[in-house]
Design the sequence.
């Protein structure tokens, strides 16, 4: 069994070529840069990866290419939750077969207002059909985007049914009281709670959580990793504040994913990175100027990102 | 070129076996019953078809099976809009190749708050990549579920770019003023506006629309077809009221899709029809009793549905 992932995980942004096809070589390079600069793991194919703009086949091919490129499966927690049960099963089985440390699973997100019983059946079918004791399933709670919440009641039921498999949650509700409630309710049962944004990292660690899985780690892994490494130290608050400052700049742009890619494009001096797949749209020239200027003003850098 | 579809279209409910795999033979049978009892077309793989709980491959196999089973491609408008651009392209190309009269296309629905420019690029990429003059694209506006609207501005831009391809819309906003605005703005340019519910059918026809694509047609195609056939007659209001009564009963149940399937299961005397794929949940015994009792009380029947 692989070790449980903890610390700072990046939902790795997926680079595209001009024709919107995934760019495996840039993807591998960015993953390695992230692991070398503070990330303990990679939640590839998350929301910020534009994973839901990729077909199941595209995701599986890219995951194969990551491993072939030398990214260790033991540091991967790919997103495998789809709208269709059969896709979720296929992606999850593939990830487990490759030896990934875990999978991060969205609930089926097209139908809204579905009962917890239906969500339980969905996750339960995935666990049973994959049928592999190595599966470590992390639930992905992101109601602002999925519009389908993962309630405390659902977690309790899944943990009761699959205590060895259900390993934790990423809470991207943006609501600290919910993260706190998840830790309080399940943290002592070996259920690992990750904050969905680095702004909650210090609070998460102090409350008994295990880290964060956050878009900001694509750009500022080193800054966020310092908060994680030194969360018990007297400098923790200052490190959190420094990390928050970068997050604030990224988040205040017109759209988060294009902003992350624009920042990488700038510091890597590689304009190809700006491309996003529809329905997203890349930042305009003046939006990029504003972003770069704000990051520059904050003294921010991405050391080693330039080839 | 096939003739434009008009009238009453059903987003055909997809039957599943106990193991949640699609049941092609019941599917073909139900499609044929619908066409024999008032439907002029079939919007297979719509919201009420649980299409977004099916993988792209499952949808393509089922479409093949419909045609092999004798359902005419000229009466089919399959749903082909997915969260991933590449899936939408694949499903659309497949439907066009088979000679389907049109496709009903959801916008990519995972990412919320995306700009119209991004949605335009998505649909535009689909049209260009499919690259087939036979494609007739119907936009699917269902903000209560997709949470991603298709605005009048987006329609204008798509119609301007692809006047031969962009053929119409299904408006499932539930907001009559929006349907009216779509008809007023584009109805005279050969853009066919379908109401998303039979409750708007008479108003839609009077305003210059072309019919409805509605969940209720799975159960009450004959009643809704009467409204369509006689919308200019003095009986139109009474026919609309009779159709509304059935819709009201279906819609007042705990959940629409399980209610449609429970009604079919009852009248076809075929309990297999009750199965829904997770995250949906079938009606409980007492919920079925309530539904059947209300339909019975209204004197409703599904003639010829029993084998």
Sequence:
């Amino acid at each position: 069994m692989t070790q449980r992932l903890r610390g700072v995980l990046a939902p790795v942004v997926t680079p595209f070529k001009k024709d919107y096809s995934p760019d495996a070589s840039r993807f591998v390079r960015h993953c390695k840069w992230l692991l070398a600069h503070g990330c303990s793991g990679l939640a590839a194919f998350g929301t910020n990866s534009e994973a839901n703009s990729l077909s199941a086949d595209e995701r599986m091919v890219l995951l194969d290419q990551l491993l072939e490129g030398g990214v260790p499966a033991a540091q991967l927690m790919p997103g495998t939750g789809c709208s269709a049960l059969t896709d979720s099963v296929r992606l999850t089985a593939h990830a487990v077969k490759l030896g990934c440390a875990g999978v991060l699973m969205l609930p089926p997100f097209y139908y809204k207002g579905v009962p917890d019983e239906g969500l339980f059946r969905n996750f339960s079918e995935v666990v049973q059909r994959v049928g592999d004791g190595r599966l470590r399933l992390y639930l992905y709670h992101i109601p602002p985007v999925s519009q389908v919440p993962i309630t405390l009641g659902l977690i309790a039921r899944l943990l009761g049914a699959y205590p060895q498999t259900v390993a934790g949650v990423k809470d991207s509700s943006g609501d600290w009281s919910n993260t706190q409630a998840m830790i309080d309710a399940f943290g002592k049962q070996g259920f690992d709670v990750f904050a969905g944004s680095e702004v909650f990292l210090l609070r998460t660690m102090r409350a008994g959580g295990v880290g964060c899985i956050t878009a900001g780690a694509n750009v500022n892994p080193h800054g966020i990793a310092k908060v994680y490494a030194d969360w018990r130290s007297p400098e923790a608050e200052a490190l959190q504040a420094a990390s928050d400052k970068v997050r604030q700049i990224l988040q205040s742009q017109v759209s988060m994913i294009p902003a992350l890619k624009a920042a990488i494009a700038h510091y890597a001096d590689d304009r190809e990175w700006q491309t996003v797949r529809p329905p997203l749209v890349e930042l305009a020239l003046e939006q990029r100027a504003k972003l770069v200027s704000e990051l520059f003003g904050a003294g921010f850098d991405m050391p080693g990102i330039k080839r």
